[in-house]
Design brief:
The protein is α+β, with helices and mostly antiparallel strands. It is built from 13 helices and 21 strands.
Length: 413
């Protein structure tokens, strides 16, 4: 079973939360962060290159040093304050008509090493190294990772009980997404949550934050090895996560745009697609795929439906059945000559939050030649792949809303 524990979060006073809380470090570039960041914004801690004029590269040692100075200053000024006792926290996010309720807690690095925290993406060592630097210099997990777990009625009941009461924070962000947080400090409820997770929840599934999770596990392992008096009670064995029941989560589409047709004329591309797909022109109005194994294509001002024919994919293979695999094998590789989605500069990826209009815009501008929209992956597909030890192709899942940074920080010391 999984291991969890409460922690005494470092977080903003209620009256400052909207000034401190910020988008995650990786959804804004430095220029966007500089334009957004107010005086108290956490972006000065997560993206401190914005404090320099001109903006410095984010791996510059002066940037790392500034991050440490700013984190200390935010605490000295009372913009971030540590809770008096370990707590759990209920965190809700609302996007349109849908609200998801997660628990902010500490997960154990051993569970990642032992495969109880399950991944579905590959990680790159250079990105892990960068996240490790941030954890080590701050002695803290400044931003949480995003986990899912299989629903448990007893955990859901506790979360719902708190969510029915008055919250500590409640605000709407710049994307019109709602964020709300409740503090669980009652000793009996804290003990019950710990018991339920450690006796009933078999695994966590990394939804977003693969590199931060891997980095946290490496930090724990390195500090353990360097500590001759290690006894397992150290805070560096734990890292901060927000964990949602999988039934409340929804993955949105993650689409592709390609710069050229690999030397083909548009009519040749459509003809070659006909070997593996039923191709139908849908006209000039935006057309979204309506089910698995159907794709939308935008080419020369028109939208097309591409339905993969039976026998072109393997429904018994958790990877082969994915639409990203079908598109990669039968279109991007076979026809357009794109072999490696991670390194090929001819392809780019567009999160579904931007809408399909972003695909047609990039093609109509001349920047790209063709665009493909995919039906979203399901949470059950993600769980099946993680449980089987497989890895999804790159750029398969897009979760929205993103976790707001600055609502809770976990100190390692």
């Amino acid at each position: 079973m999984i291991k969890v524990k409460p922690f005494a979060a470092v977080r903003p006073p209620k009256n400052l939360v909207t000034e401190v809380a910020a988008p995650p470090y990786d959804v804004l570039n430095s220029e966007e962060a500089k334009a957004m960041a107010g005086e108290k914004s956490l972006l000065h801690i997560t993206k401190p290159e914005i404090d320099f004029d001109p903006i410095l590269p984010d791996h510059d040692q002066r940037v790392y040093d500034k991050a440490v100075v700013n984190f200390k200053e935010w605490q000295e000024k009372g913009w971030l304050v540590q809770d008096e006792k370990p707590c759990y926290y209920v965190y809700s996010q609302t996007m349109g008509e849908r609200t998801q309720y997660g628990l902010v807690l500490c997960a154990h690095t051993d569970d990642y090493a032992e495969g109880l925290i399950k991944k579905h993406e590959l990680t790159r060592k250079d990105k892990e190294d960068d996240r490790m630097i941030h954890v080590n210099i701050q002695n803290a997990n400044i931003e949480p990772v995003f986990f899912a777990y299989k629903d448990d009625a007893a955990i859901n009941e506790i979360v719902a009980r708190y969510a029915a009461g008055e919250s500590e924070y409640r605000f709407i962000d710049e994307n019109n997404f709602g964020h709300e947080l409740w503090v669980i400090s009652d000793d009996a409820d804290v003990a019950k949550i710990t018991e339920l997770f450690t006796t009933r929840v078999e695994a966590f599934y990394v939804a977003d934050g693969h590199h931060r999770t891997a980095a946290a596990a490496r930090v724990g392992a390195e500090r353990r090895a360097a500590n001759p008096n290690h006894d397992g009670t150290e805070e560096y064995n734990w890292f901060m996560a927000v964990c949602f029941p999988e039934s409340q989560l929804k993955i949105i589409d993650y689409n592709r745009v390609v710069k050229d047709l690999n030397g083909l004329a548009p009519t040749q591309l459509i003809s070659m697609l006909g070997e593996d797909f039923d191709v139908m022109c849908k006209g000039t109005e935006i057309y979204a795929p309506t089910e698995l194994h159907e794709f939308s294509m935008y080419l020369e001002g028109k939208w097309y439906s591409l339905v993969a024919r039976p026998g072109r994919y393997d429904d018994n293979d958790p990877i082969g059945v994915l639409d990203v695999t079908i598109l990669s094998n039968l279109v991007l590789d076979k026809i357009l000559g794109i072999k490696d989605l991670r390194t090929d500069k001819r392809i780019d990826f567009v999160g579904g939050i931007r809408g399909l209009g972003e695909l047609s815009r990039r093609v109509d501008s001349g920047e790209m030649k063709v665009a493909f929209a995919l039906y979203p992956v399901s949470m059950q597909q993600l769980i099946n792949i993680a449980d089987s030890g497989n890895i999804m192709p790159p750029k398969t899942t897009w979760f929205e809303p993103k976790l707001r940074s600055g609502l809770a920080i976990h100190k390692l010391i």
